[in-house]
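From the methods appendix. Each design record in this collection lists the tokenized structure first, followed by the designed amino acid sequence. Records were kept in a plain field format so they could be parsed without special tools. The example shown here is representative of the layout used throughout.

RECORD:
FOLD TOKENS (712 positions):
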């Protein structure tokens, strides 16, 4: 225990009192450290903070009293009581004034001594607990700070380096702890601390401050930018201030805050403000004049203040071709100004995509063919002018520098492009208004003639409408006749299906009956081979009967009316699994359900046909597996519900995916897996009738997964 490992310092001249004190401490389960005096020094105190209590007599205390008081002061934050055993006539208050905590007057009893010591030891233990609690709180506080914190002790060595400091500086606490603070400035490569001379100057400043409490730039906030070990450029603000951890001992606290993000925001905000000022001027110009050329050249000039360029051009779209409407920064004007330019791959690319296009170096791109005579052009950017989803034209910007334009430039210029697009729309609207005014008089003159013509057309239209009405009546009559005929054919088809099923089953029942009589009455005559033939006949009869029943079910599935009911997915699937519980148990199938809870409004019988057939297939095609597994899951999304039935059976080749959903389409012979080849066809038919779909994913030998999506 901690209490048993803490000794007490004993400095008593009287052997009897010293023996009594040692015995008393032993009874309190404490060790006693006997101190000695040599040349006015205390001998035997190497780890003074481990002393619970210092007990001296008045004779010995006079020799080393300053050292004892200093020892007590250095013990902070622990309580280190100083008890004086006094023999003379001096009053106890004199010792207390000189720094003693208590005075025990001689003579005293063992009981009195024990009570005093127990009280002091309890006080010391309580102080240790509080110190431990304060230390834990201090460590938790440092770990939660967003600012980096480094604390250096009186020697300038780092005793605290929190997680935020690790992240900002890129230096782990394990590398920094115990190292001089000035060396960490050099490791971080802070500006002004690169050379050994600067580091020595910083060391002298820190040590001088720790000794005297006087520091240059005390409490002032400084800023710096440095490159972290991982290559990142970090901007910081730092602050130094003192803390007095104990009397006459100062430590230094260094706070560092990462302001890189804030500086980036301030820079972006300033640039954004400048762009807004330019945009305000552009908007005012666009709204104050209808002169298209004035607006366009003003905006192109303002663009140069946002994104530097040598020359710019405006191409207005006319169908799939472009007309060069404006040029800025080129003298003399280009010969194509005001004309349709030849087909150009760059303009076509922007026209098709509606997105900006940037060339880092036009000399490296074979599509470049704008200003071949302008050999200074290297960087190029094309920007679409959009009005909603309509492409009005393209802005071309050119620079003499390689890699002059970046995607962020296109984003910054977007508001200006909107203003140019608005200017184009305004110009077109103005042209339309002028043309409209010129045409208005002509339209008024033509209005009367048009009305007369429309009257004649209306009369003709009425005649045509009467003919259409007559044709529509005849079409309705024919449609009704067709619907009646279709109804009759459906009824005949249902009767035919029933008749075929009944007529086919009659001879099968006869064959089955005669085969049964042969097996019962003539088995001895038939012999083993004959009985085998007879068994094959009976098996074929049963298979044929099952085929007829499945065909009848498939036929009736198309004609039965849907009856939608509300059903809980989890309960419904669980009941279907319960129906096959015997087959699952016999086959030792590991069947897992993972269904998302949902309520479906659906035809229950059609859904049961789908899930029963898929579950039966999964059980059938896993019957030869050592550990057969079937997993049924379901998930609702966007008004539909998707069932997934997965197994680890034989699987199939995905090239047969569409065939397996056809009637009588089987990939395996009856000797391997029984069946009629109708089940998956009924699954697809039922899913289609419900307005859903079914599909599968598989790989031979790797199992199969079937998906069924139905509306909720």
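DESIGN:
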């Amino acid at each position: 225990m901690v209490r048993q490992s803490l000794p007490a310092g004993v400095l008593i001249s009287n052997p009897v009192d010293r023996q009594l004190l040692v015995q008393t401490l032993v009874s309190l389960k404490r060790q006693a450290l006997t101190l000695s005096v040599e040349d006015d020094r205390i001998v035997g105190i190497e780890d003074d903070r481990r002393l619970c209590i210092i007990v001296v007599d008045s004779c010995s205390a006079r020799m080393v009293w300053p050292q004892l008081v200093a020892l007590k002061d250095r013990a902070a934050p622990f309580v280190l009581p100083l008890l004086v055993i006094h023999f003379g006539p001096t009053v106890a208050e004199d010792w207390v004034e000189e720094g003693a905590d208590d005075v025990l007057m001689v003579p005293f009893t063992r009981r009195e001594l024990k009570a005093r010591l127990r009280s002091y030891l309890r006080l010391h233990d309580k102080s240790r607990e509080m110190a431990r609690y304060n230390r834990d709180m201090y460590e938790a506080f440092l770990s939660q700070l967003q600012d980096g914190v480094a604390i250096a002790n009186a020697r300038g060595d780092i005793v605290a380096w929190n997680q935020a400091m690790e992240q900002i500086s890129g230096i782990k606490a394990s590398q920094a702890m115990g190292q001089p603070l000035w060396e960490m400035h050099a490791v971080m490569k802070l500006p002004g601390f690169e050379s050994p001379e600067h580091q020595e100057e910083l060391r002298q400043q820190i040590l001088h401050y720790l000794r005297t409490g006087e520091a240059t730039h005390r409490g002032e906030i400084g800023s710096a930018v440095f490159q972290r070990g991982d290559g990142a450029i970090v901007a910081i603000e730092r602050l130094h201030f003192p803390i007095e951890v104990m009397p006459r001992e100062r430590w230094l606290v260094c706070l560092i805050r990462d302001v890189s993000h804030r500086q980036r925001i301030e820079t972006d905000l300033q640039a954004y403000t400048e762009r807004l000022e330019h945009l305000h001027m552009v908007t005012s110009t666009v709204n104050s004049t209808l002169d298209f050329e004035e607006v366009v050249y003003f905006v192109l000039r303002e663009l140069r203040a946002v994104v530097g360029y040598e020359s710019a051009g405006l191409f207005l779209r006319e169908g799939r071709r472009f007309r060069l409407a404006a040029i800025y920064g080129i003298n003399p004007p280009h010969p194509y100004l005001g004309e349709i330019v030849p087909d150009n791959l760059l303009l076509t690319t922007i026209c098709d995509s509606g997105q900006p296009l940037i060339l880092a170096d036009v000399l490296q791109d074979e599509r470049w063919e704008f200003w071949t005579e302008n050999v200074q052009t290297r960087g190029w950017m094309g920007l679409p002018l959009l009005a909603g989803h309509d492409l009005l034209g393209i802005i071309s910007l050119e620079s003499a520098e390689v890699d002059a334009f970046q995607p962020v430039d296109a984003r910054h210029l977007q508001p200006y492009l909107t203003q140019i697009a608005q200017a184009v729309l305004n110009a077109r609207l103005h042209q339309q208004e002028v043309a409209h005014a010129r045409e208005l008089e002509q339209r008024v003159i033509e209005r009367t003639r048009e009305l007369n013509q429309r009257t004649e057309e209306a009369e003709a239209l009425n005649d045509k409408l009467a003919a259409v009405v007559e044709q529509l009546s005849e079409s309705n009559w024919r449609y009704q006749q067709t619907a009646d005929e279709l109804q009759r054919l459906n009824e005949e088809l249902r009767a035919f299906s029933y008749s075929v099923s009944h007529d086919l089953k009659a001879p099968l029942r006869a064959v089955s009956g005669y085969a049964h009589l042969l097996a019962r009455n003539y088995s001895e005559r038939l012999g083993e081979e004959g009985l085998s033939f007879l068994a094959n006949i009976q098996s074929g009869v049963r298979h044929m009967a099952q085929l007829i029943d499945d065909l009848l079910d498939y036929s009736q599935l198309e004609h039965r009316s849907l009856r939608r009911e509300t059903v809980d997915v989890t309960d419904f699937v669980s009941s279907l699994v319960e129906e096959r519980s015997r087959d699952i148990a016999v086959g030792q199938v590991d069947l897992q359900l993972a269904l998302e809870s949902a309520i479906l409004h659906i035809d229950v019988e059609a859904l049961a046909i789908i899930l029963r057939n898929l579950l039966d297939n999964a059980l059938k095609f896993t019957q030869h597996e050592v550990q057969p597994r079937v997993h049924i899951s379901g998930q609702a999304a966007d008004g539909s519900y998707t069932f997934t039935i997965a197994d680890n059976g034989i699987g199939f080749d995905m090239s047969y995916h569409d065939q397996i959903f056809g009637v009588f389409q089987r990939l395996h012979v009856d000797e391997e897996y029984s069946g009629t080849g109708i089940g998956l066809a009924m699954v697809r038919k039922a899913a289609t009738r419900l307005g859903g779909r079914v599909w599968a994913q598989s790989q031979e030998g790797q199992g199969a997964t079937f998906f069924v999506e139905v509306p909720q």
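APPENDIX NOTE: The radius of gyration is 50 Å.
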